[in-house]
Amino acid sequence: MNYYPYDSRNSLYRSSLGAVPAGESLWIRLLLHKDACVDTAFLRIVNDSDNSLCEVTMSAGEWLCDYRFYECELTLDEGLYWYDFRYTSAHGEFYVVKSDHSLGVVSQQCGERFQLTVYDKDFTTPTWLMGGIIYQIFPDRFYNSGEPKQNVPTDRFVCQDWGKTPEYRQNIGACSLGNDYYGGDLKGIEQKLSYLADLGVSCIYLNPIFEAHSNHRYNTANYEKIDSLLGDEDDLKNLCEAAKKQGIRIILDGVFSHTGDDSIYFNRTGRYGDGGAYRDYNSPYRQWFKFYDYPHGYDAWWGIKTLPETNEDNEAFTEYITGKNGILRKYLKIGISGWRLDVADELPDKFLDKVRTAVKDENKDAYILGEVWEDASNKISYGARRKFLRGGQLDSVMNYPFANAILNFIKYGGGDVLSETVHTVLENYPKCSVHTLMNHLGTHDTARVLTVLGKTDSFVGDRAWQSHQKLSDFEYECGVKRLKAAAVIQYTLPGVPSLFYGDEAGVEGFGDPFCRATYPWDCEDLSLLEFYKALGMARKDCKAFTDGDFYTIYTDDNVIAYTRKNTKGSAFIAVNRGTDMVNITVPDEFINSKNIFGVLAKDGEVTLCEYEYTIICV
Question: Among the four residues 243, 369, 400, 603, which has the most C-beta atoms within 10 Å?
Answer without folding.
Answer: 369
